[in-house]
Amino acid sequence: MGVLACSSGQEQSVQIQSEADLSGHRVATTAGTCYDIDLSQRKDLELHRFNNNADALQSLLNGVTDVLVEDETVFNSQIRKEYGIKIAFKGTQSFPTAFMFQKGDAALAQACTATQNRMIEDGSMARIKAYWVGEKYADEEHFSHIPEETEGTPIRVAAATATAPISFLVESDWYGLEMDILRELSRDLHRPLDIKYYDPASAILALKSGLVDVVSGGVFITPEREQEFLFSEPYHAFHSAFFVVDTEASRDSGGVLQALKKSIRRNLLTEKRWVYIVQGLWETLKISFLAILLGSVLGVGLYAMARSRRKWVRSAASLYNGFIAGIPELVLLLILFYVVFAGSGLPPDLVAVVSFALCFASGASDIYATSLDAIPYGQTEGGLALGFTHRQTFFHIVFPQALRRGLPLYKAQCVSILKGTSIVGYIAIQDLTRAGDIIRSRTFDALVPLLLVTIIYFLLVWLIGLLLKLAMPSKKVL
Predict the structure, then answer these.
(1) With contact defined as beta carbons under 8 Å apart, do 2 and 263 qualify?
(2) Fewer CB atoms < 10 Å away: N or C end of the chain?
(3) What are phi and psi of 308, to 5 degrees?
(4) Is a pLDDT exceeding 80 seen at residue 281?
């Protein structure tokens, strides 16, 4: 098997032939799908919801769950053979899938439906379905790609999945059944596509806030969604499949080392997937550095406000610190991006910098207070008595001592911000963590992408500690 996973020691495949047989079993599915909604009504099974189908598959392989419910096209014959799973049975229901639009954008929704109807009439819809849904793409090194427009007002697309054959990334370009339909729409409207990868829940928020024009990614039509959004005509009806471990599948006998080499090649070298890691690392470093820099400056102002002679200024600083301490970083990020700066045109990475800088400023002001207030005022008096000015006394006597006390706390704050940037994928930023998610969505492998991301974060934390250690003044200065 082409994945390194911890086995639970489960020897026998679960024997199920219908949905009635799911009773008493642990069932994995992707959160928010029709399969999730359907199975959540049942009290006779243990439902496990995962953010993506890669994590759901790992839960099945590791014995955490017994059955995995997904669309029948997600795990094609090649994937099933490689990971040793099989389809126990297929569901009887069909779930129509379409593109989702804002309520006030009926023209674009109608244009999308018109494009789909035209594709049905000229036979191109049947051709791309045979290619993508029929798994012809799985046997090709280079995928089919319909050219799109390059000039004009872009159609902003939120891709809520990065999984073949619906929509997926290869070397920073999008492919898949839905991408081909959207490219046909692009050519009909003479508008280019601007595609960004969103978490499913974030994609809906982005559409609601007007940050995108259309949500794609296997969006099921539900009554609740129809109340809030418009849909094109369904382009396909997907069917559920119930996957279990295939105990009769042949296993890779090359050993752990051989499996690791194969996993590294598949996760990093194939389709140049290492590029996602490099791009994600750059985004993480950029956001972290700018947030720390801006937050450090804002922290000085916040510290000054906390020491103001005016009560209302001190109260404002205290209120701000209390607010930041009481709100999770993710919630603040989502509020700023989807509410405060929605429609402002501010790039997501800049919103992320502002969000994390606001958090860092609160912690930095406390660090300044802890460090500076710990220095006895007699140090200042002694410096003034020796003829130093107030500025000279601060920078030559007080500040070096405060720096030694505050740098360990400052380092912890920097590390916290660095690790906190792993949530920026919620606003369509391809950071280091999201890069690992994109790779996992293509390979369904957990070990190598997560291990690589972990190692990189560890090295970054070590580097922060080293740089701040070099900035530490020697005791001779004191």
Answers:
(1) yes
(2) C
(3) -70, 150
(4) yes
CA terminus-to-terminus distance, the chain: 61
DSSP 101-153: EETT-HHHHHHHHHHHHHHHHHTHHHHHHHHHTTTGGGG-SS--------SSS
DSSP 382-402: HHHHTT--HHHHIIIIIHHHH
Contact 447, 4 (CB under 8 A): yes
**451 neighbors 260 (Cβ within 8 angstroms):** no
Nearest to 409 by CA among 450, 372, 356: 372
Q: Give me the sign of the Cα torsion angle 125, 128, 130, 133.
A: negative
Work out the angle between the directed axes of helices 106-122 and 177-189 (0-180°, nearest 10): 110
Residue 226, CB half-sphere, CA atoms under 13 Å: how many?
Answer: 10
Cα separation, 266 vs 258, whole angstroms: 12
Q: What is the pLDDT of residues 206-217, one digit of tens each?
A: 999 999 999 998
Q: Considering only CA atoms, which of 69, 51, 258, 206 is closest in space to residue 60?
A: 69
Rounded Cα gap, residues 98 and 100, in angstroms: 6
Task: Answer positive or negative: Cα dihedral of 156, 161, 164, 169.
Answer: positive
DSSP H stretches of helix in 421-446: 432-443
Largest Cα span, the chain: 92
The pLDDT tens digits for 71-115 are 888 888 888 888 899 999 998 888 899 999 999 999 999 999 999
Cα 324 to Cα 359: distance, rounded to the nearest angstrom: 6
What domains does the chain contain, in order, with CATH numbers?
19-94+242-259 (3.40.190.10), 95-237 (3.40.190.10), 274-473 (1.10.3720.10)
Q: How far apart are CA 362 and CA 216, in angstroms?
A: 38
Enumerate the β-bridge partners of residue 163: 167
Residue 439, both tokens: 């790779």
Q: Strand pairing of 67-71 and 236-245?
A: antiparallel
Instruction: Please provide the average confidence, as pLDDT, over all residues in the chain.
Output: 87
